[in-house]
Amino acid sequence: MPNARTDSTDTTGKHPRTADGHGPRGSRRELLVGLLLAVVVFVFHYVFEQRLMSMGAFTLFDTLFDADPGLTLEAISSGGGGNHLSHPLLEHLFSIPIGVVAKVASFVSSGAIDEAATRVSLALLVVPAATGLQTFVALRVLRTLGLSLRSALLLVVLAALSFSRLLLGSMPESYSLSALCISLAYMLFLRTRDGRSLRAEFSWIALGVLTAGVTVTNAAAVAILYFVRERNLGRGFWRRGVRTAVTVVIILAVTLASGYVLDELSDAHTRQTPNNVKWILRYLVDDPVIQLVTFPTAVINGLAPPVPKSDGNLFAAKARKAAAKRGTPVEGRLIPVRLSLRRTHVPGSVRNYIGFALLAALAWMALRDRQLEPAFRSLARASLAIIAFNWILHGFWGGEQFLYSQHWHMSLLVLLGSAVMAFEARGRNTTVPLVICILGIAISNSIVLTKSLQALLEG
Asked: Pick from 240, 162, 250, 252: which is nearest to 213 by CA?
């Protein structure tokens, strides 16, 4: 009987695989390449984050689209602020270890190291580090699925240069943290798709709690991947549906219960925490029809948007009015404008048609193409379901759809990877088209970012 771990070749004859279908073994050189790329991504995002903070982009709500990085920075640094219903564990996952490190550093230095400043400094490392790690995980997922190292690297670089990744990976917000959690769920799918064990079930629950703790709606992405895994294990539709439902209930119960307990223990509600329900209702969409029809625009904007519009930021006026009422000067620089891409959401726009065409082409390949390996086909279809979930959810909730593009970032990357593999299986060279896309997106986003920063500085 042949050894189950001996190397074989996939249907393209190009990519070395193991016989159990788990894809190429990661050589030490390949792992070092992935780690080096992750470090480069981390350094870029950390430097860019410092730039944004120094110019006051985190001071007010909604300066950077509808994001609230100042509130999230407070949450993950000191445990105050944040929405405890939509992000049940976000502040506790980071503020607790950050607090411990800051206290130890202050104690060891006999007070020479300021504890509060250390908390903020450490909190500013979180999202850039998560973005770098997500880059590494995404590369490993694509390689495990059988893509060549060259194609996988080009796709990961393309994703790293996307506008949503460049901006959202450089601010203390939950979006890139969610992208990391969902990417880890893809990797867990590949690690557990052929095996049934108690350890695997606990791993899914633990990752589900982590994902839902960062953003509760992203438990749906974990549920979809778990459901597809159950299908691969040969379970019937109703049985895997029940098992998935039970798993999701456990995940949400543990997440919300632990969040409530930690809130009570830390007395989080006494700090500057917004009213949870009121805060969530604030983001209900006024015109869901337009939002649903123009979702493809959000997909394209996440990759390469036009220059955002600069509108007046009402929070700047409120902050000045409050400072005048108190008789104290305004703390920090208040940027009176907010960036927005909402005006690009036009049903009949070329951008929306391009988005529709891209999603339709990727969907056709995921559903109809027979050149894909079973694992790739399964994950491609799961990716379609994750994007469809976000399409529906953010058709009704979340005004600036672009912000949530990190929630389907990994799904879109897997679908693009399936298209690349399908073309390569037919003997087509995808390197040149990918390089052209990378150069085009890099040039476009560098122009957009430069003009966006200029608008904030002049505002």
From this structure: 252
